[in-house]
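A favour, since you know our structure tokens better than I do. It will help me judge whether the discrete encoding reads sensibly. The space below this message is yours for that.
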Amino acid sequence: MAKPDPKVESTYREIRIKSTLQDAKKPEIQILADVRDCGYDEEAIFAIKLALEEAMTNAVKHGNCNNPDKNITVRFAVDNYMVAICVRDEGCGFTPEEIPDCTDEDRISLPNGRGIMLIRAYMDDVEYRSDGREIFMTKRNKKKRPHEPS
């Protein structure tokens, strides 16, 4: 099997879990271990952890409506230069542009609704696919450039 390459989705590793907040931590453990092994700094590790937690929570709560009979599929690849993560739920999807802006004056005091904004703020690239059932996000390792040796 080919080594996982963030630029080639067919090489990604896959973890499938039940749609519970407890199980949602399982992919994070493996992904962050790979990130650390590849020499990402603490700032990048924090960003990836936060974005992944938000994506997983959104998949459980909003995508799969807290239904533990549904699954979440996480596909990912990590190398010295980039992390790519796809989180897919079994829900009906959504249109990201229709989500209210959490920084609007009438929404600023609400205790939820910031996940999408945080993911976009902390990851380098964010794309919603399959009518909002999948989020694809990447983070580049600022400490290494592709032309540098590993």
Q: What stands out?
A: The chain has a mean pLDDT of 90. Strands lie at 13-18, 71-78, 82-88, 125-129, 134-140.
